[in-house]
Amino acid sequence: MVKSKKKHFSYYITLAIIAGFIIGLTLNLTHSQDLATYIKPFGVIFLRLLKMIIIPLIFSSVYMSVINLESVKNLASLGKYTLGYYFVTTSMAILSGIILVSFLGPGKGANLDISQKHTSSISESKENQKEKKPQELLSTVIQVFETAVPQNPIKAMVDGNIIQVIVFSLLLALVSLSSKEDAVGMISFTRSLEKISHHLTHAIMKVAPIGVFALIVNVVSSTGMNSLIYLGKYTLVVLLGLILHVTLLSVFISPKIKMSPLMFFKNISAVMLTAFSTSSSSATLPVTMSTLTEDFEVSEKTANFVLPLGATVNMDGTAIYVSISTIFIAQVYGIDLSISQLFLIFVTGSLAAIGTASVPGAGFITMGIVMGAVGVPLEGIQIVLAVERVLDMSRTVVNVVGDSVGAIFVDSLMKKRS
Ligand code: ASP
Fold this sequence. Notes:
This protein has helices spanning about 5-30, 35-70, 70-105, 115, 120-145, 155-160, 160-180, 185-205, 210-225, 225-230, 230-255, 260-265, 270-280, 280-295, 300-315, 315-330, 340-355, 360-375, 380-385, 390-415. The chain is mainly alpha-helical. It has a single domain (about 1-30, about 35-415), classed as Orthogonal Bundle (Proton glutamate symport protein). The longest helix has about 35 residues, at about 35-70. It is globular, with a radius of gyration of 22 Å. The structure holds aspartic acid. Aspartic acid binds near residues 279, 358, 362 and 395.
């Protein structure tokens, strides 16, 4: 896709989101949600098309990334920079979430019915707290590592298990590097698969405005605006945390790309809008990869490694969301969290963000790990359910911006090195 086409693409997607919002809200206010069922299939088909391309794209990109790096030493440097970036930014994200929600206290004194119903579970959870902490934490860490290794790579592909596909592609590429003559056929097949996957991505993106329109109509017509007003203060604190984080990232990366933060957002808008409407970092991955390599000149070998990995394990938006929501729910229940509990949120929240699948609503589920670890009643999750969808859309935008900034940053380090 050339740049002018990308500009048109962002323009049409923005129009599709605005139109989808207006029509969705009209259907909601006139109680005609049934009509949305005729529009919904276009969104479902668009999402399925994006998902269809993910596994061939990830397999071929990660494999070719290692082949193009040409040595294990280069891969080690790339891995080191990438993981270092993920660690620092996820920690920053979760810390800023904790600080914001603790100072602004959106749940303090909140008069939400649910806090009355479940007060009994507070003492129960407090009692279980000591036992649960180390077990939850340890089992989360062990599980992340254990399940990353596929028992059956074909099943991993069939199930769409991205992290397992990455591990398999990496291992296959590593042995191909060390026995190149035997891997000639494999390399040329995978190179071709990678190129064809990119062409298919571009073709799918041509119908994106229709798909995005249908997805937004579906969400807005079924949720409306009432829940946003009901949980206004909490929603605003989460959005503030997310906006602060992407602003910081854009200021950080701006000198590297010689672009103002505003220009950065403009150039990455196609990625942000796709993430917003699909609520899925992995469904957005094809767009992220083509935008970063074509518009930000990130080398393919970096983008092909950093972006698929980032879509799976680097979730700054989810980290912010999980920390703010857990502490908000604790505030609603009147639980005062100690410094050590806040530290536990920091550690488990980071792990939860790593373990969260890059699909809609996944962060909402993994939040249970963090709540369980610090003894916040799990039933409290219902309090934030009403605004979950809109916050999912918003945190996914931050997740993909985090991945994109990571790819640009790591690429600049790799270029300096060579
Ligand atoms: N939907 C998010 C993503 O795909 C994950 C989450 O639910 O936090 O990035």
